[in-house]
Write a structure and sequence with these properties.
Elements (H helix, E strand, L loop, with lengths): L1 H9 L34 H10 L8 H6 L2 H9 L5 H6 L2 H21 L20 E3 L2 E3 L1 H12 L29 H14 L4 E4 L4 E4 L2 H4 L5 H4 L9 H11 L4 H9 L3 E4 L10
Parallel strand pairs: 4-5
Antiparallel strand pairs: 1-2, 3-4
Helix pairs in contact: 2-4, 4-6, 6-7
């Protein structure tokens, strides 16, 4: 497994498993292949142990302690390279979504603790989203590849945005357990409620006549249109109305009616990019 990971890291010229998806090939990538040697089912034991040990009840991460004891995280992240095409294809949609969410969050943790000293913000790591590559399922993927070319493009599940964690204070909470295909819906529902109940997700101020939302809903608002788009209710643009329709399902009746009526201005909360550390 470690040998495979090393090979993948040394040869960023992999041909992707499905050439119609994922990022364009970069210079030097064309025409070379690698062999995936393991088709074993992925297990989340090491990752589960990391989350339980280093993430507290407030979703803050003990990055310095994790950096000093990173073996389990590294072992899990290396194992992601061994998932082959037939194994992945045999999973149901929930398992596939859970796989990519867990990978994104685990690679984000790795990106933070690879820095010495640890940065004050993930944004202080050059190329962390767009250029840094990780070996996964026979491919080399960046965090942006996972989020935009896979999760947002291949699945109609906007709740991924309350599950992907960018290691910042204003991000959704990092769960103390991996996402699982057989529990994914319940986990995403719980994540949504927790995030909207936090000061970083939603704030309704009738005194100001304003509804404040996380900037996540501004950046990715169009992802809610297909499922939650409405006309004649709520306020704002097409994507904003879809987001508000989605959010209204998680509120009590009084707040829900306030959102539906639309007699307020929609504002977005300042995003705190400082590290979500303990």
């Amino acid at each position: 497994m470690n040998k495979l990971y090393s090979l993948l890291a040394l040869f960023p010229s992999l041909i992707i498993l499905n050439s119609s998806e994922g990022p364009p090939l970069r210079q030097g990538q064309l025409g070379q292949r690698t062999t995936i040697v393991s088709g074993a089912e992925l297990t989340y034991g090491d990752y589960a142990a990391v989350l339980k040990t280093y993430v507290n009840e407030n979703a803050r991460v003990a990055y310095n302690k994790l950096q000093a004891n990173r073996q389990q995280l590294d072992a899990f992240n290396a194992s992601l390279a061994n998932v082959d095409r037939s194994t992945y294809a045999a999973w149901n949609e929930g398992q596939q979504i859970a796989f990519w969410i867990n990978a994104y969050n685990a690679f984000t943790l790795q990106s933070i603790i690879d820095q010495n000293p640890i940065k004050k913000s993930i944004r202080d790591i050059p190329g962390v989203w767009k250029f840094r590559k990780f070996a996964i399922a026979g491919e080399l993927k960046t965090l942006d590849n996972i989020e935009h070319q896979i999760l947002r493009s291949q699945f109609n599940e906007p709740r991924i945005h309350v599950a992907l964690v960018c290691a910042a204070v204003s991000c959704p909470p990092l769960r103390r357990e991996p996402y699982r295909g057989d529990r994914l819906d319940a986990q995403l529902e719980d994540q949504t409620r927790k995030y909207l109940a936090s000061p970083h997700g939603l704030r309704i101020s009738r005194a100001e006549g304003r509804v404040y939302l996380s900037s996540i809903f501004k950046w990715f608002g169009k992802d809610w249109i297909d499922t939650y788009g409405v006309e004649g209710k709520f306020t704002g643009s097409k994507s904003e109305r879809a987001v508000l329709n989605f959010i209204s399902q998680y509120l009590d009746e009084v707040d829900r009616e306030y959102l539906v009526e639309g007699n307020y201005k929609l504002k977005y909360l300042r995003y705190d990019w400082f590290l979500n550390k303990q």
